[in-house]
């Protein structure tokens, strides 16, 4: 997982409420065992069924930030939804609220969930609609979202999650910070107990 400092990029406006994980990553694509390659299935039904769905529009193809409606990521706790969003190229999602498990799954892979007020989210979505090439910066250390010269909004993130993201530490990375202690423990285990090979 790469460390996050500041994310600067264009946005995709998708102001729908209660977008659940089955809409983000439909169930028929959950049979794979890899963590990569899910981007092509992102919002699969909407992209197939809706003419001019926002992700299919060329002006939004390189966007790094998804701007969504409230309760984003509700429904089942499938990790494949954030995997697909990240694999598509998103580095952050901005919404008024997130489902708790979805938010946690995002932070575990380095996909930054940013919670702003509904008014602030609408302002960013409108900016993205009227100016698809408008860039915003999400600064994690200062916890600010900005667009020069007229938009600035602060967001909350718990200190432990912020530390993990700025250090680029997933669960395995945190464990490996104690590699010396793990090695010492394993070398001192009694011979009759199973050992790591």
Word description of this protein:
The protein contains eight helices and eight strands. The strands form two sheets. The protein has a four-stranded antiparallel sheet, with no helix packed on it. The mean pLDDT is 92. The longest helix has 13 residues, at 118-130. The protein is of the alpha/beta class and 197 residues long. The chain has helices at 21-24, 44-49, 80-88, 100-107, 118-130, 159-167, 171-176, 179-187, and strands spanning 6-9, 11-14, 65-68, 92-95, 112-115, 136-139, 144-147, 151-154.
What is the CATH C level class, in words? Answer: Alpha Beta
What structural class do helix, strand and pairing data support? alpha/beta
What is the mean pLDDT? 92
Specify the CATH architecture: Alpha-Beta Barrel
Topology of helices and strands:
Blueprint lengths: L5 E4 L1 E4 L6 H4 L19 H6 L15 E4 L11 H9 L3 E4 L4 H8 L4 E4 L2 H13 L5 E4 L4 E4 L3 E4 L4 H9 L3 H6 L2 H9 L10
Parallel strand pairs: 2-3, 3-4, 4-5
Antiparallel strand pairs: 1-6, 6-7, 7-8
Quick overview:
This protein has a single domain (6-168), classed as Aconitase, domain 4 (Alpha-Beta Barrel). The protein is built from eight helices and eight strands; from the N terminus they run ββααβαβαβαβββααα.
């Amino acid at each position: 997982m790469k460390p996050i400092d500041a994310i600067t990029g264009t946005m995709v406006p998708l102001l729908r409420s209660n977008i659940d994980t089955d809409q983000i990553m439909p169930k028929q694509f959950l049979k794979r065992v890899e963590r990569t390659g899910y981007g092509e299935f992102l919002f699969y039904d909407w992209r197939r069924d809706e003419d001019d769905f926002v992700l299919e529009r060329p002006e939004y193809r390189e966007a790094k930030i998804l701007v969504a409606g409230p309760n984003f990521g509700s429904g089942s706790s499938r990790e494949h939804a954030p995997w697909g969003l990240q694999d598509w190229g998103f580095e952050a999602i901005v919404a008024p609220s997130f489902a708790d498990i979805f938010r946690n799954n995002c932070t575990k892979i380095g996909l930054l969930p940013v919670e702003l007020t509904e008014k602030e989210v609408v302002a960013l979505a409108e900016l993205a609609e009227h100016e698809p090439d408008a860039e915003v910066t999400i600064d994690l250390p200062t916890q600010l979202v900005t667009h020069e010269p007229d938009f600035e909004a602060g967001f909350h993130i718990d200190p432990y999650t912020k530390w993990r993201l700025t250090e680029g530490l997933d669960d395995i990375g945190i464990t490996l910070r104690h590699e010396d202690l793990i090695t010492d423990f394993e070398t001192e285990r009694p011979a009759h107990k199973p050992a790591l090979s």
